[in-house]
Each structure stands twice: as C-alpha cells, then as structure tokens.
Amino acid sequence: MEKPRRSSLKFVIDLLIGLVLSYYARLISNPLQSGLAYFAAGLIPALFIGWILFPFALYSKQPQPISFNHALHMDSDIADGIEGDTEAEKCLYCHSFRDDGTFAGIPKLELCMECHDDPDSPLGETQAEQQFMTEYVAQEKEVPWLLYSRQPDCVYFSHIAHVQKGELDCQVCHGDHGKTLELPPFQKNRITGYSINIWGKNILGLKSNTWDRMKMDDCAECHTQKGHEENNACFVCHK
Amino acid sequence: MENNLAHGHRFGMVIDIDKCTGCGTCMVACAAENNVTVRSDESDKQRSITWMQLYKITNGKAFPHTEVSYFPRPCMHCDEDGHGHHTSPCVTVCVATATRLDFNTGIVSQIYTRCVGCRYCQAACPYHARYFNWWDGYKLIQPFPKGMERSLSPEVSVRTRGVVEKCTFCHHRLMRAKNKAYAEGRREIEESEYITACAEACPVQAITFGDLNNPNHKVSQLIKSPYAFRLLERLNTKPKVYYISKKDWVREMADNYLPGEFKPISTAAVGSR
Fold first, then answer.
1. Range B11-270 has CATH code 3.30.950.30
2. ipTM of the prediction greater than 0.90, yes or no
3. Which of A57, A113, A183, B77 could make an S-S bridge to A64, C-beta 3.0–4.6 Å?
C-alpha cells in the first residue's frame, strides 16, 4: 500500500514545482507584458535608496579637530615618552584608569603637554602639530575631541573589568585604531545622535572581526563563550 | 549559571524600626543618588516618585498609650524559591522582560529602555514599591533649569515618561565597588565597600545592608533575631528586606493576621536581650 501513495505524493510535488517554474518562466520570457519589468523598475531603485543612499545620508560626517596619528605615538623609536612593554600598556599610558578603577578615556591636554610643552617648537613638521601647538597648547585649551564610543545613557560599561580582569586586548573591541595614521571622521546618526561606532559598521552581523559589529547580542555572545554567563544579567550592562 | 541564589551574593537589608526616627534622610539620599525626578508642585504625594518611602504607623490607642513608629520601605527585592522559579510578583508578570532577578546578586533589575509601561508590575507588587513616570522627568523639563544637569548622577540613567522605576539597591554602587576591586587587583568586593545610599545616610544607623549569603556579615546575624520579620511574609514573595521591632503591634501590622492569629513574643520567653 505504501508504494502508490509515495509515487502520488511525488507526482503532486512535481506538478507544483512545474507550475511554479512555468509561471516564472512566463514572467521572465515576457517581462513587459507580465509586469516584471515594472516591478523591477520600482524595486531596484527602492533597494538602492534603502540600502545605500539612506544609510549614507543618515550619518553626518565630521572631521576631528586635529588629525592625530596613533601609529606614530605607538612607535617607541619616535615617541619615546610613551612607555610600556606591551601594546595594551602603551594604550594605557594615555588612556588610563583612575585609582578607583574608572576609565579616564581620552587624555586631557595636560598629558599631551608632557611632551608637547614648548609652543615655539613643535615636535614634528606636520601641519596638525603646528595647529595643535598654536590653537591648544599655547592657549592651554582642551581639544574638543569627538568621542567615537560614547555609549547611550542607559548603558554601563566597565573598561577595567574587560582589560584588567578579563585580560582582553584593547584591539578586541577597538580594532586597529591604535595603528591608524589619522583619525577617521566622526560619523553621527542624524536621528539618534549616536556615533556609528557604538554598534559597529556591520549591522547585518556578517563579521570577520570582533569590532565589525558590537551590539548587545555580540557582548552576550562573548560573555557566554568565555564562561561568564552571569554577566549577561541585565543590570551588569544597563543602568 | 546556577538557577538559584545559593551561590554568589544575595544582597539584603535589615531595618531596625525601633531605631528609626522618621527623619526622612533615607528618602532624600535615595532621591538624590538615583536621579529621582521632582515636579514643580510636589504637594500631590500620590504622584510623587519615592523609591524609598517612609510610612507612619500608630497603634491606634488613645493618648497615654499612643505609640508611633515609622518604617522605611524600599523595594523588597523578592527572592526566588530555591529552584530558580521566580517568586517576585513583578518579574513573573513583566511582559517585556524589563525586570529580572539577578541570580548572582539577588537584586531585581529594572531596565527603563526595555520597559513598555504596561504597569502590570505595579499592579502585581504587594509593597507599592514601583512607580510610573507620568511625565518626562529630567529629560524634557523645558526650559531646562541652567546647571541642573550638574546635580544628576551620571551613574544612573534618567527616566522618560511612560516607564516604571523602582529601588535598585543602588546597583551602580556595586559596579563602582567592583571597579575599585579590579583596580586594586582583587576579584571580589569586600562587604563594606558596597552599601546603599539610604544605609549610608541614615543618621541613627537603623539600616544595615549586606550579603545575606555571608554568615559572618551583620545582616545574616540580625535576621536570626526573633524580632525580625518581613512584610506580608505569608505571600511567599521572600523579601530580602527584613525589619526588626520589639513592639508587638508593629510586627502584627506587617501581615494580615486574623483576630487571635498573631503570637506576641513575651520578653520572658526570649530572655534578656
């Protein structure tokens, strides 16, 4: 009894596939009459606007006040004032922790002036260094850096828990920022006001690097992988 | 992750009602610490947001025998039943998973950006510990008073209209203590490093805060007192906020006893204490 039933089922499936295929074959063979051409004429520009034009227009681009060269400062042959045996220690020389464990973030002018102290003699020949000396060091004015990673108000993030306790390298989240020759433009979402970097640029989640996408799920994924599932509790990262 | 609170911390509070003078410092300290909103007219107390509320109770007797007590009421941070099944009424009813019991600390969290404002939790909470934001608080006061943002704590996010908020046992202070511990190369915080703003501010030290899982901590010893009780204990919500009072009528008020059901503690039976 089983055989005929199976063959009849196969027949029905074949018939359905045939019907669908012939339907599409007719659509494609005569696109104008079937309306496929008009559909495509609407869909393709819409996708172009939605996937390319809108994201492009959504983010405003703003240059940093001074073109800062991270690679140069990380090079111990050139910048010998910045001490540290490992890469992370060098990062921490300027981007340091306070005594209570909070993260100081972008250094203040005071720290830059440990080396860049003489307004009359910039340490290099570039225009950015000249500008830094005349506009900020000479006037003792803080540089209004634009923060790539400023988190929304509802987010709590502890750098020290990740760097000191979790023993993660800065690179894991910040990528090759420490090797860049100049600062990338600051891209701000025109609607929310948040920087593009707080989520990472690859919202789809097709990531080859950690820093390609850093949404909440990516944080939780890493916590789970490292065996710290307890840190996926809401209040650990939200406030 | 262990689905119960037997491991890790289990933060709780013991409030000595006999010490409390009703001064209200805990309320003020709490509001200042946690960016609790104020309105231009705060006289309508039913609409006020008070994470820490102070109630006045009396024994209802005529003059020579009148007694008055005050009891402060934070969120009770109701516990789980030991098997990972939530018993916090608010957590059970939340439709948006905006409020959770953290099994590692015992603190009931409230995520304002996740809350949809249905107010089920407010209806479910038998302690009235949850408050709904009917207005935009600090976010959209227009014109924003100049310099007011400086009075806000950056460690606690401000709430918008349409979300529920409640006491968090000053969770940001726990994170602060953890940061300090990591900076000093420790992996665990010390007991004294984390106490809530109300416990710190109380001038008569009626509020003791600490880890109930630590048998050596003062809170674990205080709750063994025969005079220790919890509010509406028979609802099985397992609050982590304990009260202590030697006055029988205060303890009797903590639950809905039938006439004659409440058993007063005679001082003779307990011994000199």
1. no
2. no
3. A183
